[in-house]
Specification:
Blueprint (H helix, E strand, L loop, with lengths): L6 H54 L3 H15 L1 E7 L4 E3 L17 E7 L2 E9 L6 E9 H52 L15 H43 L9 H25 L12 H15 L4 E6 L11 H18 L3 E8 L3 E8 L6 H8 L5 H4 L4 H13 L3 E6 L5 E8 L3
Parallel strand pairs: 6-7
Antiparallel strand pairs: 1-2, 1-5, 3-4, 4-5, 7-8, 8-10, 9-10
Helix pairs in contact: 1-3, 4-5, 6-7, 7-10
């Protein structure tokens, strides 16, 4: 059996994993963004420097040695490498730079350029000079190392700031999770009180996400309670019936003065045993009612057609018709035996009391399954119908004819959170409608 996991522990673990992923993504995104911003800033600065240097040369028209002196002062001031390419192909470069290494600049096109010299990465701007000038091009290269150090510092500052913000965010999220899951402690306390017998049901004042679970749990408790009560009643009834029947029969059989039993005594015992057998079958059928079962489904149309096939054999002189727009494979969350028992009792009553026709209608509307059975018999008297609708009524003892079957139907409807209505059909017979809701 796998170990149970805590929601808070799971959230904490995932929070750490996602935080590390977030920091890694943040690191690479910062690196890219800072690099782009740094390059744009450097390019803009290089454009200004090239324009300034070009303007000085074009205004003063210095000789080559003067240009070299200007380059050294410019390089000393800005710490940039300056390369001036003359029309004759010669190069004038900063005094502290190897001229041979910068021959590769001549092959570069005009515009921003990148030059790799050993471990150094140089970013520069090369600009061609107008044709009437002795200069061919001016290139200013910026050593990246110093700026890279500044970028690294900015990058680390952003990472530290982001990490601190992430810690604050995790603290806020953790607090939100704690407050959100706090109602679970109330549910846990309700469960403890329920086990100890201090309360009969779970409190429905729970978060919306847990409401269906709590309602379903309470429904199961109600169903279990009804089953226990029903079985206790049935056991009490069975015990009373069996003892009474056995006592009556033993009284006749033990009367030695009248042995052998008279024909009247034999008829009484046979009638008594038949009544006992019928009552046993009825109560055992009620004991078999499953009620609402999680994960159980049935096919109402298919079950109805199967029950009709049986009824047509039992009542060959009656016509059974089904009216439904639902397909044969339409399913409904209900225990198959319960629905089969319900339809069997309704159609059997219709076949027993109907003159010639029994109609059954099955439909689904507004998340509800509706089953209606109508016959053309004498109908059900209002006082009998009221006793059928009375859940506490002992229908088998108080209502003749319809009592036994409808008592079972009433039990099934109640255990599946349904409703039952008894009225008159268009032909004046009985019309019994049962409705089962689709529970959350």
């Amino acid at each position: 059996m796998t170990a149970r996991k805590s929601i808070r522990t799971t959230a904490f673990r995932y929070g750490i994993i996602f935080s590390l992923i977030y920091l890694a993504l943040l690191f690479f995104s910062h690196t890219y963004v800072i690099q782009q911003l740094s390059n744009e800033s450097r390019k803009h600065r290089l454009e200004k420097e090239v324009e300034s240097f070009q303007a000085i040369i074009e205004n003063e028209l210095p000789a080559n040695d003067e240009i070299s002196s200007m380059i050294d002062r410019f390089q000393l001031l800005l710490e940039h490498a300056v390369i001036v390419e003359m029309k004759d192909g010669s190069l004038i470069v900063s005094s502290n730079v190897n001229q041979t290494d910068f021959r590769i600049v001549s092959d570069k096109p005009s515009g921003f350029i990148e030059v790799s010299l050993g471990a150094d990465e140089l970013l520069g701007l090369k600009r061609n000079v107008r044709s009437d000038s002795p200069l061919s091009s001016i290139t200013i290269l910026e050593m990246e190392n110093g700026l890279a150090e500044q970028s690294t510092e900015a990058h680390l500052t952003l990472i530290i700031a982001s990490a601190l913000l992430l810690v604050a965010l995790l603290a806020l999220v953790g607090t939100a999770i704690y407050l959100s899951l706090k109602p679970i402690a109330h549910i846990k306390e309700d469960m403890r009180r329920l086990r100890s017998g201090n309360q009969p049901r779970l409190n429905l004042d729970v978060p919306k996400e847990f409401s269906p679970l709590v309602r379903q749990f309470n429904n199961l408790l109600d169903l279990s309670s009804r089953r226990i009560d029903r079985h206790r009643r049935l056991n009490s009834d069975l015990s009373h019936m069996v003892k009474t029947s056995i006592s009556a029969n033993l009284a006749i059989l033990s009367d030695s003065d009248s042995l052998p039993p008279s024909r009247e005594d034999i008829d009484f015992m046979v009638s008594n045993l038949r009544d006992l057998n019928r009552s046993l079958n009825y109560r055992l059928t009620k004991a078999d009612i499953s009620g609402m079962q999680i994960g159980q489904t049935c096919l109402p149309v298919e079950i109805a057609k199967n029950v009709i096939s049986v009824m047509e054999k039992i009542f060959p002189d009656k016509i059974f018709r089904i009216d439904t727009s639902l397909p044969n494979d339409f399913s409904w969350p209900m225990e198959r035996q319960d629905l089969s028992e319900l339809l069997g009792n309704l159609l059997e009553n219709g076949g027993k009391w109907g003159q010639s026709e029994v109609d059954i209608s099955i439909s689904q509307t507004d998340s509800r399954l509706t089953i209606e059975v109508a016959d053309d018999g004498p109908g059900i008297a209002p006082e009998a119908a009221s006793k059928v609708m009375d859940r506490g009524s002992r229908l088998d003892e108080s209502v003749t004819g319809f009592g036994l079957g409808l008592s079972i139907v009433s039990e099934i409807v109640e255990d599946n959170s349904g409703q039952m209505d008894i009225g008159s059909s268009e032909t004046g017979g009985a019309r019994i409608t049962v409705m089962f809701p689709l529970l959350d």
